[in-house]
Amino acid sequence: MNLVSGILIRVICLGLLVLTFGAFAGRSARQDVDIETRVDQMLAKLSLRQKLDLLGGVDGMFIRDEPAIGLPRLKMSDGPVGVRTWGPTTAFPAGIALAAAWDPDLAETVGSALGEDARARGVNFLLGPGVNIYRAPMNGRNFEYFGEDPYLASRIVVGYVKGVQSHEVVATVKHFALNNQEFDRHNVSSDAEERTMREIYFPCFEAAVTEAHAGAVMNSYNLINGVHATENSWLNNQVLKTDWKFDGILMSDWGSTYDGIAAANAGLDLEMPAGEHMNAATLEPALETGKVAQASIDDKVRRILRIALKFHFLDRPQQDLRVSTYNQAARAVALEEARESVVLLKNDRNVLPLDRHRVHTIAVLGSEVWPAVTGGGGSSTTTPFQSISLLEGLTALGAPTVLYRPGIPSLRELIDNTEFEGKVSVKEFADDHFVRTSRSSAQLKLNDWKEADWVPPGNARSLRYETKFVPRKSGKYLILALAAGEDSYAVYVNSKPMIEQPRREGQAPRSTNVTLAAGEPVTIRVDYILRASAPRFGLGIRAIDDLVSPDAVQVAAMADVAIVSVGFNAFSESEGFDRTYALPAVQEELIHSVSKVNRNTVVLLTAGGDVETESWLKNVPVFLHNWYPGQEGGTALAEILLGNRGPEGKLPISFNKSWEDDPVHDHYYPLATGAGETPHVKYAEGVFLGYRYYTSSAAKPLFPFGFGLSYTEFAFENLQVSIGSDSEGRVRLSFDITNTGKRAGAEVAQVYVGDPSAQAKRPVKELKGFQKVRLSPGERQTVRLTLDRRALSYWDESQHRWRMDPGKFIVYVGDSSENTPLAQEFVIQ
């Protein structure tokens, strides 16, 4: 084929594509008219009671059917990283891992795999993606979301939603809005100014609705400026349905509806999992008295019917029996996502990739090594048919001799193996004040995992455990306690309070250190207040020196390289509670012990964000973040460690030097409140979140947003900026990237914009564009990006609109928020 023929074929194909798109657009407009006509006809056949019944879910995961209009029962499924509700499935890496890949095309591929998997199970609504912004590292659901930056998150969510909905499955974007903590999530009010919401916390939802046309949005549990999200008319009716012209279904999170009339008036369309508040008993009298308008009810039903018709739920079975539920193509997608998401944060002395000619023995240590930890906990927890651990991944790729030891006890083992002096006395009380004793008993351990049907005599609401512990040697001891749900407790050693857990929804294990003398008994007392039907409490004590097993240290000393895998899992980082900033108890001791005997220590972190590293990072040459890597994570990590594949992930968050350095530190948790008062969390940092704060102040992160090392090097050159002459005044950028190293690799070119002329205070840098580039050694590529007016604008609080102030702007180009070697000013009149 000659050049002219090739060009001609491309022109013909482009013309056909344009004609096809035009025809599709025409059909789409006609289909919209037809759909609205059908909605009118269906609505007219429904009685008021039938309409109201449709506003509440049924049987936990369904929109009820309505035979009178041919509406089938519509099936839902958690969650954002796998179609989990209906049996084993493909477990994809966590949402934050997808963001770390910085690859919108990959996001669409992942979404498509999820959509296909949903069709294999007859699922109409996938309850994902989660798109809340990463505000602080402790949020128990950060791992589900797409990081701290609204632009990056927006590009990922658009691809994800388009991929899911390409299979005629509704993507449900959640949790709208400001659900940036799991701490006391039903009661906390997230208080933020409109500019902060519009610039930081809303853009991802906006992009999902206005660009990707998501069919459903889910409200959050929390209050927003004092009003629950499901009752917040400004949020739902003004922002979502008026400003963004959302025509789909706004549903509640499970149990996030608190007032049926308020929710109905505030724009909630569907209460899940059932109509406990938005039902006929509540709404019929409200309609009669005019507290709720009939037009509002009709609009809600219209939205349900509209989505059912748009996605052809009435025209065919939703389950596609031709698609395998054990999908090998989806496995390949999960593997590629895991590969692209791993971030190499430190690689002193080029320990990685491992040299097979010099590395003959690898010690693999830690609780995350085996079995595979695929994801965090809660409604996103996905059970795969098969998952690959790091141990299995290294062995399958033919790594040198691999020596595995867990090295440390699990939390449950630590609790179950703690020996007390004599028995533990248990007193049950009929109140919360430990006054009216109802029964006394004794047990050997402090591992009270009672069955759910346990009913204490006398309706006990609190328990007091008392025992003695005799240390075998002098030194520091770890005391670890854990409970569940909203149960609260206090641990005392010799009457001195050591651990206090107040009542709140969900909780992480808590620990502290105490110095004890050999042979000197100490009195242990635990005051435990029940909120559940039975106690779920455990307490363990062990000498710090005994936490790491001697054989693990010996194995580490024998090996050429020691890999220590640490972090969290579905038990310690989950929906429903905030995790700790420090690594789970005992893991730091493993890092310290191993790094003392092996100078080639590699630390792998499994977590939804950053953690405390101050005590150990300086002692290890290599640090990788693998997030929650899904079912294929072990293979992806092994490939990167052994050099079969280079790391290419970039941080979608700022990694703090310490929690105290974070701009959110002083106002993440609410101030103490009285009984019955709403706790308020003020977003006092405003738009200066994460890297926006660090690039605008003298403070610096440990690892900046956008950062990630490679096995090769890249150079940025030749930045050109031009302003378009059209009415939009678009700014066009071009620059070159060259692979100056000796290996093929991927780089993410990041474009930030500064607006020093703005009348409002703006961050020095804001991400407004990026592109992932793969280059061979010596290869160069020109990147071209365009900035529109929105990229140069901020939200004007007084005028309630996006505003661009004429004057000087600065564009920065580089590979992280802190490393932007190219910069150029331009002026917009």
Write structural notes for this entry.
Helix 3 packs across helix 12 (328-341), helix 12 (328-341) crosses helix 17 and helix 13 packs across helix 17. This protein folds into 4 domains: 45-310, Alpha-Beta Barrel (TIM Barrel); 342-408 and 547-645, Glycoside hydrolase family 3 C-terminal domain (Rossmann fold), CATH 3.40.50.1700; 412-546, Sandwich (Jelly Rolls), CATH 2.60.120.260; 702-828, Immunoglobulin-like (Sandwich), CATH 2.60.40.10. Mean pLDDT is 93; it is low at 1-27. The chain contains 18 helices and 36 strands. It starts with a helix and ends with a strand. The chain is globular, with a radius of gyration of 28 Å. The chain is of the alpha/beta class. Strands 1-2-3-4-5-7-10 form a 7-stranded mixed β-sheet. 25% of the residues lie in helices and 25% in strands.
Low-confidence stretches: 1-27
Shape: globular
Helix content: 25-40%
CATH fold node name of the largest domain: TIM Barrel
Strand line-up across the major sheet = 1-2-3-4-5-7-10
Distance between the termini: 49 Å
Mean pLDDT across the residues is: 93
At CATH level 2, the architecture of the largest domain is Alpha-Beta Barrel
Count of domains? 4
